[in-house]
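Progress narrative, Year 2. Work on Mandelate racemase/muconate lactonizing enzyme family protein from Maribacter algarum advanced from sequence curation to structure prediction during this period.
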Amino acid sequence: MKIAKVETFVLSNQLKETFFFSQWAYSERRICIVKITTNNGKVGWGEGYGPADVIKAGIQMVTPLIIGENPLQNETLWYKMYRKTLDFARRGVLAASISAIDVALWDLKGKILNQPVSVLMGGQHRKRVVPYATGLYFSESDDLSAKLVAEAKTYVKLGFKAMKMKVGLSVDQDIALVKAIREAIGDEIKLMIDSNHAYSLREAAELSRAVEQYNIGFFEEPVSPEYYHHYKELRTKTTIPIAGGECEYLRYGFKTLLENDCVDILQVDICGAGGLSEAKRISTLANTRGVEIIPHVWGTGIAFHAALHFIANLEPIPGRMYPPDMYIEYDRTENDIRESLTSPSIAMKNGFIDIPQGPGLGIEVDEEVVRNFSSEILI
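Result:
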C-alpha cells in the first residue's frame, strides 16, 4: 500500500456577523484541509491551523516526500518532512502544514487497521471529556455587556459546565465584563479568560488581581508569547492558573515554555504544533514536569476529533483512583464549515462528549460540503 495522492482544499465562508478579539476581527472563516489517498482507495483527512493559503503552499512543498511511501510509517514520514523544512522554518506555518498531513496519516492509519486513532496512539485513558464553550468574543454593540451575558446564559442552558470569554479591551473594561458574566452564570460554572497576549506584565498582573475574586479557571495568553520571563513572573503574582502554548511549535518550543516554568496549563494546538505525532511527544515533556494539558482547538470537526483522540490518550496527572475530568475547547462562534463538514455531528450529553470509537478519527468528511466551500475541484 502506497500514498498515491495528496490534495489540499482551502475552505472559505463569509460570516454573517463580524466578531473580534484583542488583536483583529474575523469576518471570514478560511481553513486548509488535506485529503490523502492510497493506491487502493483508502482516504485520510487532516487540517492545518493558521493562514490557509500559506498552509496549502507548505503542504504542496512537502508532498513529493510522501508520495509513493507506506502510510503506516507515519512517524518516519513526519521526520522526513521536518528535516526538509528545518532550514527554512523551525517554527510557524510549515509546522502547521506538517501537522495537517500528520493528522491525515493518523486518520488513514486508523482506517487501514480498523482502529480508533487513540487506540493506535497507545490506548484510551478515558471514554469522555468535558467541553468548554469558547465564545464571548467582542462585537459592535450598543450594550456589549448585555449581549455577552445573554450569550453566556445560552451556554448554561445548553448544558456546558465551563466557558471561556475574551478579555483585552482594557483592564477596566475587562474587569466589568468578567464581573457581569460571573454574576450571570453563577458560581457552579467554570469561567476562563483569554486576552490573546494583549497585555504587558504590569497590566496582566493588575487584571489578574482584580478578577481573582470571580474564581477564574485559567488566564490564557496573558502576555506576548515572546516574553517567557513575563509568563514566569506573572505566575508569582496571581493565584489564577496561567495557560499558554497556542503560539508554540514542535517539542523544542514547548521545551522552552516548560523549562522556564511559564505555564500551569499547556495549550498545544495539534493542527499547528506538529500534528498528533509531535503532540504526543510534547505531552511526554509536560508529563515529566507535572504540567496539565488542555489543547487549543480551532477550525473544523477534523481538528476537534484529532483533539478528542489526543486527550483520550493523555495519562492522568496525578494518577489516582478517580482522576478528574479533562477538558476540550469547543469553539461556539459562527462556523458553517465546522457544522456541516464532518459526520457524525459533535454531540454533548450531560455536559460530556464521548471519545469516538470508529476507525481513524471516527468521522467521515462530506465531499459535497468540500465542493461547496472550496474553489478547488474535487475529483
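Residues 93-113 form the longest helix (21 residues). The chain has two domains: 3-114+366-373, 119-362.
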